[in-house]
């Protein structure tokens, strides 16, 4: 029995990981349906052989379901859904507005969630190997001054993905969260990262201000090679290449920097548990 050609649906495919994943999948002979908020932003992918569609992940669920049905009807099935859409909000918690807070959660978390909801009917109806990959980040593990809101969205994506994985495993659908470190994408470019509406002096003179200065020169200098990372991602999600013979893991941690952060977080958490074991655990009913 022949294995069907993989068909990918990728959000935010205009740049960064979305674009690189699309190009890598096309290079392997897979079918790709690439989406972005406007077709002009993904014209290069169309020239490379992808089908292109307009999709704003913040659209109402009914609109996302319409796009999902049309995408599924294109080849009769979809095997891989990749949720890449998201952006960075920079600023202290006191400096960001409620509107900014709502917007970043609407895009980074609810957008991911609703795209999954829209496509699941079609993924469940497809036989064989199927995956959902949601993009978290190294900051899914470690928040910090100046990016609490962004970290909060990525922690949420990670937690939702873990639960979704448990729900869909019995249905034969593999789910993973991809957690990159710092890669040379547009996410930190001027005009892409969003700044808080207010800048308060007390924060500007501290760690938040230092983060802003650091970010000014960071775009284009990140050590991570996005194309190399996407080769690993496609290998993992198709269980081929470096992932041949392995199951799809619960998370794909990309980059030496991300591995270091997560190891340190795990070690510090174990130390905390050891320090408070006893006082904090002797709290059950006798």
**Physical arrangement of strands within the biggest beta sheet:** 3-2-1-4-6-7-9
What sequence of helices (H) and strands (E) makes up the elements?
A: EHEHEHEEHEHEEHHHEH
Cα shape: globular
Taking the alpha carbons of the first and last residues, their distance comes to: 60 Å
CATH H-level name... which superfamily?
NAD(P)-binding Rossmann-like Domain
Largest sheet: 7 strands, parallel
Helix content: 40-55%
Q: Which band does the percent of strand residues land in?
A: 5-15%
Oligomer: single chain
Mean pLDDT: 93
Work out the number of β strands: 9
- Counted up, domains total 1
> Total number of helical segments?
9
Classified by CATH, the class is Alpha Beta
Query: Unreliable runs, pLDDT <50, ≥5 residues?
Result: none
Radius of gyration: 20 Å
Q: Assign the structural class, choosing from mainly alpha, mainly beta, alpha/beta, alpha+beta, or little secondary structure.
A: alpha/beta
CATH domain fold name: Rossmann fold
CATH architecture annotation name: 3-Layer(aba) Sandwich
Structural commentary:
This protein has a single domain, classed as NAD(P)-binding Rossmann-like Domain (Rossmann fold), CATH 3.40.50.720. It contains 9 helices and 9 strands. The protein has helices at residues 16-27, 43-47, 61-75, 98-125, 148-168, 201-204, 207-216, 226-238, 256-276, and strands at 7-10, 31-36, 51-54, 80-83, 89-90, 130-135, 173-180, 194-195, 251-254. The strands form 2 sheets. A 7-stranded parallel β-sheet has the order 3-2-1-4-6-7-9, sandwiched between helices. The chain has a two-stranded parallel ribbon with strand order 5-8. α1 (16-27) crosses α8 (226-238) and α4 packs parallel to α5.
């Amino acid at each position: 029995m022949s294995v069907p050609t993989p068909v990918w649906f990728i959000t935010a495919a205009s740049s960064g990981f979305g674009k690189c994943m699309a190009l890598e999948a096309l290079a392997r002979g897979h079918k790709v349906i690439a989406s972005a908020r406007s077709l002009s932003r993904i014209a290069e992918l169309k020239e490379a052989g992808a089908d292109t569609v307009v999709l704003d992940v913040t659209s109402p669920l009914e609109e996302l379901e319409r796009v999902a049905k049309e995408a599924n009807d294109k080849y009769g099935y979809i095997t891989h859904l990749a949720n890449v859409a998201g952006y960075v909000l920079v600023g202290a918690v006191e400096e960001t507005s409620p509107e900014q807070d709502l917007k970043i959660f609407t895009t980074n978390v609810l957008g991911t969630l609703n795209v999954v909801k829209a496509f699941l009917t079609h993924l469940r109806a497809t036989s064989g190997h199927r995956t959902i990959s949601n993009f978290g980040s190294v900051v899914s593990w470690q928040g910090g001054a100046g990016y609490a809101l962004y970290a909060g969205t990525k922690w949420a994506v990670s937690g939702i993905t873990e639960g979704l994985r448990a729900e869909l495993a019995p249905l034969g659908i593999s789910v993973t969260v991809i957690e990159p470190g710092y890669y040379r994408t547009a996410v930190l470019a001027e005009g892409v990262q969003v700044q808080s509406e207010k800048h308060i002096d007390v924060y500007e003179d501290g760690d938040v201000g230092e983060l802003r200065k650091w970010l000014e020169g960071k775009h284009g200098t990140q050590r991570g090679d996005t194309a190399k990372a996407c080769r690993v991602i496609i290998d993992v999600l198709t269980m081929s290449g470096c992932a041949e013979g392995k199951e799809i893991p619960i998370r794909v941690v990309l980059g030496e920097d991300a591995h270091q952060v997560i190891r340190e977080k795990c070690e510090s958490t174990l130390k905390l548990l050891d320090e408070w074991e006893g006082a904090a655990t002797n709290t059950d009913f006798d």
